[in-house]
Amino acid sequence: MAQKRFQAPRGTRDLLPEDLVLIRHLERTAHRLAASYHYLEIRPPLFEETRLFQRSLGESSDVVEKEMFTVPRRGRSQDPGEAFTFRPEGTAGVARAYVEGGFAARAPLQKWYYLGPMFRYERPQKGRERQFSQFGVEVFGAAGAAMDAEVILLCLRFFQALGFGEQLEVRLNTMGDPEDRDRWREALKAYFEPLLDGRCADCRERFQRNVFRLLDCKVAACQEAIAAAPKLRPLLGAESGRHFEEVLAGLQALGAKVVEDPGIVRGLDYYTRTVFEVHYPPLGARSALCGGGRYDGLVAEMGGPPTPGVGFAIGLTPTELALKELDLPPKADLADLKDALKPQIYCVALGEEDRAETLALTTELRDAGLTGIELDARGKSFKAQLKEAGKRGVHWACLLGSEERASSTVVVKDMQEGGQEAVPRAEISAWFFQRQAAASTGAALP
Ligand code: HAM
What we know:
By secondary structure, the chain is of the alpha+beta class. It has two domains: 17-177 and 237-332, BirA Bifunctional Protein, domain 2 (2-Layer Sandwich); 344-441, Anticodon-binding domain (Rossmann fold, 3-Layer(aba) Sandwich). The protein has helices spanning 17-36, 50-57, 62-66, 91-100, 103-106, 145-161, 178-192, 201-209, 223-227, 238-253, 298-301, 316-325, 331-339, 355-367, 382-391, 402-407, 428-441; strands at 40-41, 47-49, 69-71, 84-86, 110-119, 131-140, 169-174, 258-260, 272-279, 288-294, 309-315, 345-349, 373-375, 396-400, 409-414, 420-424. The strands form three sheets. Strands 1-5-6-11-10-9-7-8 form an eight-stranded mixed β-sheet, with helices on both faces. The protein is elongated, with a radius of gyration of 28 Å. The model has no long low-confidence stretch (mean pLDDT 93). The chain binds histidyl-adenosine monophosphate. Histidyl-adenosine monophosphate is lined by residues 89-91, 120, 122, 127-129, 132, 134, 136, 138, 288, 290-293, 311-313, 315, 317-318.
C-alpha cells in the first residue's frame, strides 16, 4: 500500500526559497525603517498563557472567541484559562514583556518592533492564513499625539518604500477614553434596543454581550441600522477630542493623506483614543493593509503601573499579495535578490587530481566572505561541471587544473559576458570582491 503523503495544514504554506525573495525584501524594509526611526527589536515567545489574550483582547472579541490555537497544559486542569495559546497577535505579549521586565520604573519610554508568525484559527481565504507574519511596533511611555503621528507615519513609509503609490491613505478614528466609551455604550444600547427584532442572530447576541461588536456586523441587512447608529465623536470629552485633533493635524502637517472614518472600530478590546488602518483603495474590498492604535489601559491591565501605549501591526501576507496583484514589486531590487538564488561562483576541477585543490579554493573564497560559492559534490566530469554551472546561471566559473596549480593561478571564466582570464591565486578573493562591489555600484572596472 502506498504511504500517506502529508500536506501542510490547511491555512499554512511552505515559504520556498523563491517565495522568500519577496518576503525577505519586506522584512529587510521593515528592519531598515525600524532602524531609522530608532525602534529596537523584541522577540517574545510564540505562545503565552491563554488568559493573557482573554484579558487583553477581550473575551468577546472574534479572535478570543473563535480563532485561538490553544493547547492544554500537561497535568493541569482542563480549565481553558489554564492553557497556552499560540499568539494571535503581538501587542499582548509585548505589553506583558514590558511589565515583566519592569521597564515602567527604570526606562518607561520604549520603542519596540517585532517581525514574526502569528496564529489564528480563521477560515482560510485569499490573504487570510492560519499562520501569517506581522511586522508590528509598540511604543510605551509616550502619551502625546506626536507619538501617534510618528507611529502612523512609519507605517505609511513602509508601504511607500515598497512602491504603493499616491492613493495610500490613513483612515483615522478615535475610541475615546473609558468615560467617553461609557457614554457611547449607553447611547448605542438605547439606539439598538428598539431595532433588535430586525437584526441578525449575531447582532442580538452581541447586543447582550458587547454592544460595540454589533458595529462589526457584516450582514447586509444590518448595515443601514449600523450606519445610522450614534457616533462617538460628539460624545468625546475635551482631552480625548483634543488628542484626536492633534493627531490629525500632526499627520496632515507631515503630508500624509488622512481620512476620518468613524467605521474604523477595530475588533480588539484594548484600544483607547486613536485607532487607524492604512488602506490602498485600488485593492477594493481587501484594501486594509494594517491596523493599529493607542492602548493606554493595557499595561495596567497586565498588572503594571498606568502607562500609555501605541502601535500597529502589518500583515506581511496581505502586503505580499497586494504587491503581486498590483504588479508593484520594485523590480530592480528584486532582481538583485533573485540573483541570490543562483550560485555566483562555481569552482570546477579539471581532473580528479584537482579536486582537493578546488575544495581548498572554494573554502578560501567562502572564508573570505564572498557569497554564492559552489562546487560539484556529485563526482561529475569537467564538462558536466561546466554544463551544471551554466544551467544554474552562475556568473563566474573558476577553473583549476594541473597547469593552474603549477603556476599558482586560477582561470576565471565569465559565464555571462564570455571571455576568461588567468588570475594569480593569491589575488583571487580580492579580484572577486572588486567585481562584486563594481556590480552593486554599477561602476566600470579599470
Ligand atoms: P489586527 O487588525 O488584528 O491587529 O491585525 C493586523 C494585521 O494583521 C491586519 O491588518 C492584517 O494585515 C494582518 N492579519 C490579521 N489576521 C490575518 C490572517 N489570518 N492572515 C493574514 N494576515 C492577517 C493586531 O493584530 C494588533 N495587534 C495591531 C496593533 C499593534 N495595535 C496596536 N499595536
